[in-house]
Write a structure and sequence with these properties.
heterodimer, A: MetI-like fold, 76% helix, B: mainly alpha
């Protein structure tokens, strides 16, 4: 009896959270392209470092042009080499791990803090609301990028966890405000009133009645937070305020822009263009994928399916 | 009126809290400004470290001393009297207020010009998208704009600098103006100088426009679609008003209103965001000064630039709220809130 119950639960879970989203993605061309791009990046970040050798200096001719565009194409140094003879493709692959880790951590933390603050403020109201919103206003006022640069030089770490947390410090405030106003508009709707009248506990009202209506909003904002974290972390590395101990596309940008003088001549430009295309590709993948989010999480659309 | 006073008090408290927070965060930065200065001398003038350190020590009278809370009280009281302290690194001993006064107009020039241009262009494009919503043009512009919005401005800036400045030579590769233009100004040729200034500001402005136009267009599209569904538009059409008048006076005016707050807020935020662009184009505005002050551990200069940005953001929000009250008749006549 219990086992069949569990099996039913698992089946429902697979249908709701794997098969249904996949069918949405397959039927939406934009989302499908985004999904494939994201899969490629995730594979690069997880499997990549086990397949592609660690990028070492002085292992190929400096400024070797990309061999993949040569005839016949070769995969030895597909994207060519940088100014001290390091394979560029290997740097892109090894850099993708930290970029994605930072983006994911910052996205999760930003979204969770935003939800928590916005929900508590909107749901409890009164003094709690006033205090939380005052804090939110101050956080929104502090100039984000300059503060990040100062924090980066205070903490001086390249641990993805810490960098991700750092990026969340100023990022959650906007989401918290938006969630709060969403909660305020949902709080007095009939279905919430009905749940209250039925004597449902607060956790039920919050997680079963209000949350499902916010899910698509939250998921979209998670993607935006990730996009913002990629912008921030790569930018901090580009400015050179984070220590250059790990691989990151921002470090490549910095090296190409400042040290290698890639801007001056055409035969060095591939070193600058490689991280640029890597970043733009990832952002495009995330944005295109976000087109499926509304359909996946919207409770009314779900009911129809 | 009471509402405005209350709003102003909250704004002041926000500025005060944000300033206090940034003071203590900046004070927690490791690194000795004298050491940072000495290392800069070593790099710049190729002197030995001992020599550079002795030179840097000359800046010692300007390095703040004593317990942090005492420095805090001293800084805040002086700040509100208009004394922002002196710079440690930037031509040592120069007043922070002077350095900032020299940098701010340049950032304002770039930021305000690009904000106005991208806002106007975004509004026109957004309205066209809204009028054609559901069409192929609309849906492809939505995708194009949401992707464009996610591309970091430092990437756009690097690409523009590479293509238009280094490869094609159409624009200068950095700086605020050329020295020969300054000579022309001294001779009284103001137009030539202004032309040179605009020529240098062109790429930073273009970068901002490219990265910001999409946000305005998408926001205006959404806002216009909302207005188009309102009854007073249908009524205006029924009354047989000329469609030009409806588009501009009825739809346009009402759709722009909600965007107004973010327009005012953007000005302050773009100040803080100008670090990347001014760094890439070596454009000596507030962002450039802020970046230099952080790498040099020049506390007072850093604090000064931070606080100017904080005040700009809060003032922008305050002005937006007040003007919004005057512009929106519903709030103007509603009175009490």
């Amino acid at each position: 009896m219990k086992i069949s119950h569990l099996r039913l639960g698992v089946k429902a879970f697979i249908e709701d959270w794997i098969l249904f989203p996949l069918s949405v993605i397959v039927h939406n061309v934009k989302a499908l392209v985004g999904f494939i791009i994201l899969l490629f990046y995730i594979a690069m970040a997880t499997i990549g470092p086990h397949v592609v050798p660690y990028p070492r200096s002085f292992t190929c001719p400096p400024y070797l042009p990309p061999t993949i565009f040569r005839w016949p194409p070769s995969l030895e140094h597909p994207l060519g080499c940088d100014y001290i003879g390091t394979d560029i493709w290997a740097q892109i692959v090894w850099g993708s791990t930290t970029v994605l880790e930072i983006a994911f951590i910052a996205g999760i933390v930003t979204t969770l803090v935003g939800i928590a603050v916005g929900m508590i403020a909107g749901f409890l109201g009164g003094k709690v609301d006033a205090v939380l919103m005052a804090i939110t206003d101050v956080v929104m006022t502090i100039p984000g990028l300059p503060l990040l640069i100062v924090l980066a030089s205070v903490i001086r770490t390249s641990s993805p966890l810490v960098v991700g947390l750092m990026l969340s410090i100023t990022a959650w405030a906007g989401l918290a405000r938006a969630i709060r106003s969403q909660v305020l508009s949902l709080k007095y709707r009939e279905f919430v009133e009905a749940a209250k009248a039925l004597g449902m506990p607060t956790w039920h009202i919050v997680f079963r009645e209000i949350m499902p209506n916010l899910m698509s909003f939250v998921a979209i904002n998670f993607i935006f937070a990730t996009v913002g974290a990629i912008y921030g972390s790569v930018g901090l590395y580009f400015l050179g305020v984070l220590p250059f101990t790990a691989f990151n596309w921002g470090i490549m940008l910095n090296m190409a822009f400042r040290q290698a003088g890639a801007l001056y001549s055409l035969h060095t430009i591939h070193y600058l263009l490689a991280p640029i295309f890597a970043i733009i590709g990832l952002q495009i993948g995330l944005i295109l994928f976000s087109y499926a989010i509304d359909e996946i999480f919207n409770p009314r659309l779900r009911a129809r399916a | 009126m009471r509402w405005i006073v209350r709003r102003a008090i909250i704004a002041f408290l926000t500025v005060f809290t944000a300033m206090t927070l940034s003071f203590f965060v900046i004070k927690a930065m490791p690194g000795d400004p004298i050491d940072a200065l000495a290392q800069a001398f070593v790099r710049q003038y190729y002197m030995s470290y001992e020599e550079a350190y002795r030179l840097a020590l000359a800046a010692a009278p300007f390095v703040p001393k004593g317990p942090v809370w005492k420095q805090y009280v001293e800084y805040m009281t002086k700040f509100f009297r208009g004394d922002l302290g002196v710079s440690i690194s930037f031509s040592t001993g120069k007043k922070v207020a002077e350095i900032l006064a020299d940098a701010i107009p340049w950032t304002v020039l770039v930021v305000a010009t690009s904000l106005v241009i991208s806002f106007l262009m975004g509004i026109v494009i957004g309205m066209v998208m809204a009028y054609k919503h559901g069409s192929k043009l609309d849906s492809s512009l939505i995708v194009a704009f949401s992707i464009l919005r996610s591309i970091p401005e430092y990437i756009v800036a690097i690409l523009l600098l590479w293509i238009l400045a280094f490869q094609m030579g159409l624009f200068p590769t950095g700086g605020r103006y050329d020295y020969w233009a300054l000579e022309l100004l001294k001779k009284g040729d103001v137009l030539a100088f202004l032309g040179n200034v605009l020529w240098h500001a062109a790429l930073p402005i273009l970068t901002w426009i490219i990265t910001h136009i999409s946000g305005w267009a998408l926001a205006m599209r959404g806002s216009t679609i909302g207005v188009l569904g309102e009854d007073f538009i249908t009524y205006a059409k029924v009354r047989g008003l000329p469609s030009r008048r409806i588009v501009i006076k009825y739809v346009g005016k009402n759709a722009i209103l909600p965007l107004f707050t973010s327009f005012m807020l953007s000005l302050g935020f773009m100040f803080g965001g100008s670090i990347f662009i001014e760094f890439i184009f070596s454009y000596q505005g507030v962002g450039w000064v802020l970046y230099q002050s952080i790498t040099q551990r020049d506390w007072y200069l850093m604090l000064g630039a931070f606080n100017i940005i904080i005040i700009a953001v809060v003032l922008g929000a305050l002005l937006a709220d007040m003007l919004y009250g005057f512009l929106d008749p519903r709030i103007r006549r509603g009175g009490t809130t």
